[in-house]
Each structure stands twice: as structure tokens, then as C-alpha cells.
Amino acid sequence: xxxxxxxxxxxxxxxxxxxxxxxxxxxxxxxxxxxxxxxxxxxxxxxxxxxxxxxxxxxxxxxxxxxxxxxxxxxxxxxxxxxxxxxxxxxxxxxxxxxxxxxxxxxxxxxxxxxxxxxxxxxxxxxxxxxxxxxxxxxxxxxxxxxxxxxxxxxxxxxxxxxxxxxxxxxxxxxxxxxxxxxxxxxxxxxxxxxxxxxxxxxxxxxxxxxxxxxxxxxxxxxxxxxxxxxxxxxxxxxxxxxxxxxxxxxxxxxxxxxxxxxxxxxxxxxxxxxxxxxxxxxxxxxxxxxxxxxxxxxxxxxxxxxxxxxxx
Amino acid sequence: xxxxxxxxxxxxxxxxxxxxxxxxxxxxxxxxxxxxxxxxxxxxxxxxxxxxxxxxxxxxxxxxxxxxxxxxxxxxxxxxxxxxxxxxxxxxxxxxxxxxxxxxxxxxxxxxxxxxxxxxxxxxxxxxxxxxxxxxxxxxxxxxxxxxxxxxxxxxxxxxxxxxxxxxxxxxxxxxxxxxxxxxxxxxxxxxxxxxxxxxxxxxxxxxxxxxxxxxxxxxxxxxxxxxxxxxxxxxxxxxxxxxxxxxxxxxxxxxxxxxxxxxxxxxxxxxxxxxxxxxxxxxxxxxxxxxxxxxxxxxxx
Lengths: 313, 302
Hints:
The complex is a heterodimer of chains A (about 325) and B (about 300).
Chain A lengths: L4 H52 L8 H6 L3 E2 L6 E2 L2 H32 L2 H13 L5 H20 L7 H25 L3 H9 L4 H12 L1 H17 L2 H6 L17 H9 L7 H36 L1
Antiparallel strand pairs in A: 1-2
Helix pairs in contact in A: 1-12, 3-6, 3-9, 4-6, 5-6, 6-9, 7-8, 9-12, 11-12
Chain B lengths: L1 H26 L14 E6 L4 H14 L4 E5 L3 H10 L4 E4 L5 H9 L4 E10 L3 E2 L7 E3 H8 L17 E5 L4 H11 L18 E3 L2 H10 L3 E3 L11 E2 L1 E3 L11 H5 L6 E9 L4 H11 L1 H10 L6
Parallel strand pairs in B: 1-2, 1-3, 6-11, 7-8, 7-9
Antiparallel strand pairs in B: 3-12, 4-12, 5-9, 5-10
């Protein structure tokens, strides 16, 4: 079909230019929106850090940092008040250690079963049920711990009280289990099937494939899952406030009643007058919590990085 | 093209700056808003979770009489209520302990003048597990238990079991009142203001958590308000000193002054109450209002 080429080209060209310009405008608007969203996250983070520093640092002019970190006496409403958070710090370590020790082996084993062994029908039913566990509000987990777990632990270990770090840690492990299972399972399923086929071709049993192929290959994902689980356990407040016992003594074993850092903040912040010494001390605890989760994330990053390099060889 | 890109960049930065400013401002202490009095027809009562059930009953009855009034009651703890009054975020603070001098100073620095009204009284019961053979204790013995000097029930005539000492956390006015009146033995010859809760005391976030634990633990001891005592726990008779008679907590023994652990339940307002808040407090102190006090399980003022 004959056409008047030149004029058509010019018209098309103009049309295309207009379209492209409009297209570019729209694209840039979207780009800007996305940029703004990511900027917002950073600004909020910086704002929180600034707030923690501003409200928390002044305490160190009353209690020197070493006395604050290693002091074992916390009497914020006495005259004169003393602020030593070592028992809270150790309590957080105990509770997190118990939660990790329970949740990681169970979670990884569960993920390995779901991704490597279970028939699809079982997997499709079991996974949503496990994920449902994450939907329980922490206060409900606290109640369950208070009414069921803590009497059980008391009679099992013949303790004075079942309100202790062990009970809190076990409840926390239930709360971080869904995260660990879901993320580890996704990591294992993402491994190319060639890996497994190659191992089976060499005569490996199912257990050998899981043990020597799937878990090592998914280790970066599994360690990310672990870190997410630990982060959840460090930051959880309501459950530990309800069942960790809340004693101020330095916890010498996980079966002692203890007050983790989050519980210390929650049980004190309501009473603290804004800008008062106790208020500042509680913000300083918050700052320390933030630094701890930051450290966990940095370690997770380092592990992931090493894992990646290992696989490149 | 380049200009437009730059403009967008600047706009982004400006919005970012706005966010930062907003966040920094949010961190600054706000001005006390509202003087709490005058003709506001809605006001809030916040503070002690001991006074909470009483305030709720009064607020509902008062709102039935005066449909144009709305009262919001919340009970996170006495300290929270007083802090809220100082920050100007509530009109009435409910408290189960006296305001501290340091809090009065902070309030006055912000132009708030706490005005105290005793609206009812509360007896603190000391409870143990029903199977515990111990039935009475002196204030000095309670002080020794809570400061960690006595750690076994055997020393008090009970079984050879360690004592699990339960307390409310520092958010609670009950925590402070019990420390001053019982642990430090205020008003007795043995008063000792350097005494503190011992390191093995368990600090619990609510009174019901303490009742729950005491009901299920034969070694536990706890101090709930009289209204919280249930059939699952056993209240102890308390002696002021070893020579005084042992008295069980009840409305009557609290009102005639023979039971030693009784505290005032207080409202604090900014300056003397006026307008609808005055009407409300007048209702609380009226015979009709005080009749409600007994229903809730507390002790009337007169």
C-alpha cells in the first residue's frame, strides 16, 4: 500500500515523541515515589536513633557507662536512684539463648521435612498451619505460658516458681518457629533440583541428600532465618513481661526468675516522668537493645557474604 | 529535562527535611494542653489500676445522670497518671499513692498545680496459697520477707519451703505504698527507710497475675488490694507489732483503723476542680457515690 512516507513519519515521530515524553514523566513520578518510600524508611530510622540518643545519653552524666552496664542494682524509684542493668542484659541473653536452642533445630528439621520429604499434599496443608502460629498475639502466648507452661516447668524441675527465663524462652521459640520454618523451607526449595538429582545419581540416601546437599546449599537462607528468629526473641516484650518472672537478681541459670531488657522498659516506662533519670535510663536500655539487634544483623550479613563466596568456587 | 529532574530532587529533599523536623518535634516535650477545668464536658481520668474499677463505676453513673458529659477512664498505673497530669495529657490523675515531692516540683516547673482529693480508701491484703499453714504475720516479718532477710516459710512457722515473694512492678502505686508502709515500716519504732525490695522479689505486671500465681503456688506470698482477693487464695491476719492483735482485712477493720495496711485512693487535678469535674468529684464524695465504693470492694472515706 502506497504511503506518503515523509509526512507519515513526521506525524508518527511527533506522536511518538509526545507519548514518550508522557511516558517518561509517568515513569519519573513512579521512580520518585519509590525513592521517597525508601528515603522515608531511612529518615524514620535515623529519627529513632536520634531520639534514643537524645533521650538516653544524658543518663551517663548521672551513672557512668560502665556502672550502668555492669551495675547489678536497679532501684529507679528509690532515693537516691541507682541504675545498673547487668541483670537485664544477662536475662535477655538467657531467654534468647533458650529460644534459639529450641527453635532452630526444630525449625530447620521441620523445614527439611517439608521441603525434601513430605508429599506436596502434606506440605500444602502443614505450611499454612505452621504459619498460623505466627498469628497468635504475644499476649495470648503469655497467657498460655502463664496457665500451662509455667506450672509444668515448676513441677518438672521442682522450682520455686514456674515464672522463669526457661518458660519465657520456650514460648518465644514457639513465636519464632514459623519465621524459621518458612524462611528455611523457602531457601531449601530454591536449591536447583540438579543438586539433588546429582546426589541421588551417586547413590545417596534421602538423609544424605538432606544432610550433605540441601542444608549446606541453603545455609545462607537458614542463617538468615536464624537471625530473624533471634531478632524476634530479643525484641519480644509482652510474653517475657508476663512469664519471665521479673526478678531483679542476676540470673545464674535459665530456671531463675528474671527480667529481660524489654520487660524492664515496659514495666518502668509508664511510671517514668518525661526527661527524668528513670526515663533516660530506660531509653538508654532501648539504645542498647537497638545496638544488639544491629549486631545480630551485621553478623547475619557477614555469614551470608561468606556463604556466597564459598559457593562461587 | 535536567531542570525538572533537579526540581524533583529538591522537592524530595524538602519533604525529607519536613519529615525530619516532624520527628525531632515529636521528640520534644509538648506544652501542657488545656487547663483541665472550665466548661469542658469531656475529660479523662487516668492512672492507678487499683482506682480504675471505682472510677469506671462512678463515671458510668455520672454519665447516666448527665448525658452531655463523656468521661474516659484508663488504668495503666498511678505513676503513669501523675506523669500524664504533669504532661497535661489528662485532666484527672487517679492514684493509689501520695504524689512525691519530686513530682510536685516537676509539675510546678510546667505550670501544673496538683490538687489532692481523697475519694476512697483501700486495704491491702497479704495473701498466700490456701494450703499454707501460716495464718498471721507482723509488719516486721513482712518487711523481712520482702527485703530478703527471711527466705524460708519454716522461719515463720510454716513448712520447710523457700518463699516465692511476689510484688507489683514500679509502674504501680501499690508497689511504692507497700514499700513505704510495710517494707520500710513507716510509723513504727522499727522504721528503716534504707530498706528496699530484695533482689529475689518477682515484679509482676498486674495484680491478677499475682493472684493467679499465688493460687497455683504453695510457696508464694503476694499483696493484692482487698477487692482482688478471691476464694483461691488465703488472706493473712496482720499484726502491727508482735504485741498487737492479729486483724484480718475487711471493709469494717479498715474503716475502724484496726487493720494496719490501709491507703488512701486519690484524685489529683490541676488546681482545685471546677465546672463539670467539680460536679463529678462532688458526686463521688456524696453518700450515693460512697455507697458505690463498698460495692466495688473498697472502703468509704467517712
